[in-house]
Amino acid sequence: MVCSMGDTIWTTLPRGERLHNPGCIRTVKGQVWEGQAEEQTDPDLVVFKSDHWGLRAMARVLGNYQKRHGLKTVKEIITRWCGRENAKDYVAFVLERNKWNSEWKLDLTRCHVIIPMMSAIIRWENGREYAGGEVRYTEMKAAVVAAWPEWFKQKE
Question: What is the pTM of this model?
Fold first, then answer.
């Protein structure tokens, strides 16, 4: 929805889009993200300078879930992401969207795995496809590679 107010056009967008934080990453006291905007205008969610930085932060969080915490299934990853034990609907959405089996152990060091995971999270968190459509694969891949360059030196 676009509303004109004088010379300024205000766009009503989901919170994650307005904040360049497609995964709706929460603010944690003392945590400063690479690419975080200087002015933090939201009391709960991190504001990033651009979508690239928000996507990169998502990739860092997801990668650390696997690297540091050993989370591999959609249920483990999404339950941690959303911070709720009862993430049943969220998990079901990610599984269905990606046609994944609930028992599969995912390898988030692979672009063809982490990008669909990020895409599903973005859709769930924003209540619609991001920026009016799917975030382009090349943008997401660039953010993932920027987040974890050591994973992609020899892989893709």
Answer: 0.87
